[in-house]
């Protein structure tokens, strides 16, 4: 098992590992999507838009008390579930911890088998944007 610096992300991976049926994995993703609060329209701007995604995906990050806190949204329910999964798994970590997250954990969930290539690529792009935003906080703190 791939272990990440995030106990929450590890728990999410284990939850998906317990389900072998790809349809049930999708249902789990849709459950994550339902838990995600919609972003206000005024925050759906170019600087928050994830590049390289077929769907409209937005990610916002805040830096409080040395930790990163994300919010996000998507116009596609499955992608919204992926965004929610990442937010739940990464919220409250330090930029250093986030920088150590490898995209390999997606294989551990088994979702990569169920996702279309464009969704799998979108998932990777969302993770990369979240890491980029965390890295920017890290650089600001170093200045």
What key phrases describe this protein's structure?
143 residues; mainly alpha; Sufe protein. Chain: A; two-stranded antiparallel sheet; 7 helices; globular
Describe the structure.
With 143 residues, the protein is mainly α. The protein has one domain (7-142): Alpha-Beta Complex (Sufe protein. Chain: A). Helix content is 55%, strand content 11%. The protein has 7 helices and 2 strands. The chain has a two-stranded antiparallel sheet with strand order 1-2. α1 packs across α3 and α2 packs across α3. The longest helix is centred in the last third of the chain and has 26 residues, at 117-142. It is globular and about 50 Å long. It starts with 6 loop residues before the first helix and ends with a helix. The mean pLDDT is 91.
What proportion strand?
5-15%
Number of domains: 1
Measured distance between first and last alpha carbons: 37 Å
Provide the succession of SSEs: HHEEHHHHH
Helical run tally: 7
SSE order and pairing:
Layout: H1 7-17, H2 22-35, E1 57-64, E2 67-74, H3 77-90, H4 95-99, H5 105-109, H6 111-114, H7 117-142
Antiparallel strand pairs: 1-2
Helix pairs in contact: 1-3, 2-3, 3-7
Brief overview, please?
This protein has 143 residues and is mainly alpha-helical.
